[in-house]
Amino acid sequence: MMAGRRRLLPCVGLGLFAVLLCWVWVSFASFSEDQLHFESSLEAADRAAFQPQSALSDMEFASISSYRGPGNFDRRRNKELPIILWWSGGLFPHFPGDTERIDCATSSCLVTSNRKVQLYKRTTSIIFYGTDFRAYEAPLPRLRHQTWALFHEESPMNNYILSHGPGIRLFNYTATFSRESDYPLTLQWLPSLEYLLEPVAVPLQEKNRLRHEGMAPVLYMQSHCDVPSDRDRYVQELMKYIEVDSYGKCLNNKPLPDHLEDTATATGEEPGFMNFVARYKFHLALENGLCPDYMTEKLWRPLHQGCVPIYRGSSAVADWMPNDHSVIIIDEFPSPKVLADFLKHLDENDDDYARYLEFKNHRSITNARLLEALETREWGVNDMSKPNYLNGFECYVCDQENARLAAERAYRKAPKTNRAPQPKMASNSHMGCPLPSAGYGDVRDLPADDGWLQIWPQDYWQSLDQAEGLESLIRHNESDPSLLWKHMQNIAVSRARGKH
């Protein structure tokens, strides 16, 4: 997690590290044989090079605290369990200490944030946090007996390397905002159905009174201005046709009240801040990155308050809305002017506006996909009866790894009667974020010195170069990640010669 960033995670309004303090509920390689240049079959003596003394061996295993999850019938001692390494130690979902036994649905593991176990033979999987994953810092060599797992719930802009095929297929297991990932976090910002059903915070009559006193119909509040979605460019055009009160640093045209200055960019739900923004009929809810299934509090908060979101972000947002008449999707309008005309119509017609709030009645929530997802997700938000999604994904990886190891043992014991387990590999559908595009107008019409144009499309394509470079490092069994730039250069030369 990037320093100083506020988050809304399992405890609403708290950062991830605060969450872990307030609530502790506590490979197969990604490439086929012809892709990998690891030695084809390491004998025991050769393997010793990749099996240093365990960093855990000097510890008293009996003293390792135990995380009791759903429970299982795994009675193995700690010394017999596979180890899962959290590469981003700050995300380690246990407190205190850096090592824990976890007892999951079908099996048990040891989990640790101690990187000294990276090359240990019992360390079967490494979990990476997507925002912190850097190609030039990857743990190399990539060992054939280890899988890689990706946890990435944040914006695609944090690491575009994961939006390219060569980047995402480095991972065997994924937990991302995409519904197609192995452990989907799509509704991570929606605590519960009850959150949506909360009564409208400010009645329509009061909103109309405030409108007559001069308050704009539309709210915009952003202080992160230079983002891949280029949202300010669209809002700036929209402001030509309808009044927008903009309180953040981006396109600011109104000051916040003094007592709310500290909450201008808050993702927490401080009551004073919430009451202030709830007065507006419409909220411009534009994500900082565009990606299928990436939806944040910018969308869910106005629905919770009884305001109408004007949304751009997930291209599949309609799949997750309470009904087919609860959000205004920017991309359904041919221009900002046409959108502005529609908003003016709703502002002047109470009955048409009120239709967007009908979902506040439980019987008007008709989206079966949304209801089922909230009912069946195994992790919870502010729900002490369920694990948070860090512990949940950790247990998913643990159970998957134990199943894989059992299948390998069975195959070695009786190869004629048992099939070798097949490698599991992530695909573009586990992230699949597109090339950033201009927020308004044709990118070809932007001047060469446009700030957005100079940053985000280049970042996207440079991330592809890094993904291909890391893939090449692994293919060549390199152990020094600093060689990334050399491999990237070689790929560029080969591409220029038409050989890549």
From TrEMBL:
Residues 413-432 are annotated as: Disordered. It is found in: Endoplasmic reticulum membrane. It comes from Nothobranchius furzeri (Turquoise killifish). Residues 81-184 form the Fucosyltransferase N-terminal domain. The keyword Coiled coil does not apply. GO terms for cellular component: endoplasmic reticulum membrane; Golgi membrane. Belongs to the glycosyltransferase 10 family. Pfam families: Glyco_tran_10_N, Glyco_transf_10. This is GDP-fucose protein O-fucosyltransferase. It catalyses: L-seryl-[protein] + GDP-beta-L-fucose = 3-O-(alpha-L-fucosyl)-L-seryl-[protein] + GDP + H(+); L-threonyl-[protein] + GDP-beta-L-fucose = 3-O-(alpha-L-fucosyl)-L-threonyl-[protein] + GDP + H(+). Keywords: Disulfide bond, Endoplasmic reticulum, Glycoprotein, Glycosyltransferase, Membrane, Signal-anchor, Transferase, Transmembrane, Transmembrane helix. One of its GO terms (molecular function) is peptide-O-fucosyltransferase activity. The lineage of its organism: Eukaryota, Metazoa, Chordata, Craniata, Vertebrata.
